[in-house]
Please model this.
Amino acid sequence: MVSKLLRLRPKGDLLKVEQQLLEEFKRANFLLVKEHQAMNDWDYLTLGQHYGLPTRLLDWSNNALTALWFATEQYKMERSRQPYATIWILMATEAHYLNMKENHNPFTVNKTRLFRPRIIKQRINNQSGVFTVQSTESIKKRLSLHQEEDFASRLLKIMIPGKCQESVRDELHTLGVNAFSVFPELEGLCSLLQWKFFH
Model:
């Protein structure tokens, strides 16, 4: 389990590329997003992560059904490579979370930690989203979460056979978990309608 930032090959020094990427995202953000309240680097990383920007964050959900939806969605996109969908459970305690009341900087956290983002977009709320933020030291060493001392023994992997995917998706839809509930925007609505009428 590694962040998108570590899965891609940067054109140059990884940490410098990360900073340049975020600065470009901030600069262009005002053209694409309605005005928000004042945003900090945590907010920009959260927003970028939710829209595919390579960041040092890993997405998690406190909602098991949302996690199951994402696992089956990922399987749908990669079915030729994997015979099953995977859900990762992180059995974290409050001690694994950053205290966001303290003045933390996402680029200087000394240990990989979880954080609860501000709800700057409805999708973050709907997904019960939380994140792990990797320390710069972990990024330099290119560590996956499995290799992080505080998290390695706290990860549990659940595999769902491919043959169960359709029925799982149908059950999730019955329970109100679908593309539009997870992504409450036009993109999610269109994805739900396509699934509903063409799957």
User: Anything to note?
Assistant: The chain has one domain: 4-162. The two ends are 29 Å apart (CA to CA).
